Amino acid sequence: MENREIERKWLLKKIPDKLEQYECLEIEQAYLSSSPTVRVRKENDEYYLTYKGSKRWEGNNEISHTEYNLPLDKESYEHLKEKRDGNLISKKRYVIPIENGLKIELDIFDPPIAPLVVAEVEFESEEEARAFKAPDWFGEDVSSEYKYKNSYLATH
Hints:
The chain is mainly β. 13% of the residues lie in helices and 53% in strands. It contains three helices and nine strands. Strands 1-5-4-3-2-6-7-8 form an eight-stranded antiparallel barrel. It is globular.
């Protein structure tokens, strides 16, 4: 299934209290290619192959890209993850609902990426993404910094 992913990403000043009250996803992902981005992901008990392509740039910022997700079975996921480039990424994702139906996806990475913690918010439009005012506990906006992309983290 294709969709256009419009998101922004931040480092955090502090992690919110009582994360256990939010939905938590156990995520494991492996990158088969970083250009184009092809990854396999285990999200709790669901498995996917994702292709990310056709990026849209505004100035130096990548603000959106197309994304295709295809379901996988566990055996296919296990087979493909062994063919990865670099590290297997493992993280806990807390889904925190906020105003206007938006959700913060708070990712707490396991080693070797730990102690990195980032927050992402996905938007319906590029205008909504540009207009978003981040909560006070968000830090630096790193949406355009390549070194915070999961595909980069897996190989560096």
